[in-house]
Amino acid sequence: MEMSSMISILHGWELKTWIIALIVIVSYLLLTGRYYANFKEGTRVSSKQKMYFIAAIITCGLALGSPISMLAHHMFSAHMLQQSVLYFVVPPLLWKGIPTWLFRAICTEKIRKSVLPLMTNALVSVVVFNVLLSFYHFPIIYDVIMSGEYPMVMYLSHVILFFSAMLMWFAVTCPEPELDRLNHLKKIGYVVLNGLLLYPACALMIFADDLIYSSTKEAHQIFSFLTPLADQQLGGIIMKIFQEGAFAVAIGGIIFSWYRIERSEETEEQ
């Protein structure tokens, strides 16, 4: 790797991203700490739940304000790492960190009853997310977005994908009991379906014998040992690993919650 590339990577930390992250964390801690009593139904938030939210913001900061973000413009694998973190790690942590009373304060009763039921419908959200993610990685679309000629299109596409990922994870880590419509078995099936729908796109990247994105051919090769084709294959592997890992953790959490409820019911019957 060239010395100039190394220097660029070291300077890839974005101060403004971390300032925003700090503001969000401090605001959250104040709302869930000192001012929670000012909210309707406001209750104390556990340290565990706070850690979920803080972990989500820090992880998001690493994806958007660290050298990963800079590398994502040059390396397909880094781009896939960034996306994997933003779509499979940050959303479930955010939902787990938001208490029900804060969610209700953000989303009014009208929105919860008229808009969210459709937007968070399990079938709709899983199809929308996977269709959008596959559409984004369609060679022609991806090359146009990553060309840099239309920066607003790139930012907008990432915002839409993140929003759809939040909706996709809502069915699994729902902070609102009224909208938690899937039982434990259906949630497991939902997570498995998600994994199956994303498999074709990842398989295409991993097993392709040639580059499928022209933009990766023109990208600067930062690491001499990583050819463009190997970089493309690594990108597919990274996304599949993150996806499978996140979904495995989700299924484990669902099973544990299911077991805990069953045990609690058995204890009450005794």
From TrEMBL:
InterPro entries: Caa3_assmbl_CtaG-rel (IPR019108)
Transmembrane regions: 15-31, 52-72, 84-103, 115-138, 150-172, 188-208, 237-259
Localization annotation: Cell membrane
Main location: membrane
Membrane protein topology class: Multi-pass membrane protein
Pfam families linked: Caa3_CtaG
Keyword terms: Cell membrane, Membrane, Transmembrane, Transmembrane helix
Protein name: Cytochrome c oxidase assembly factor CtaG
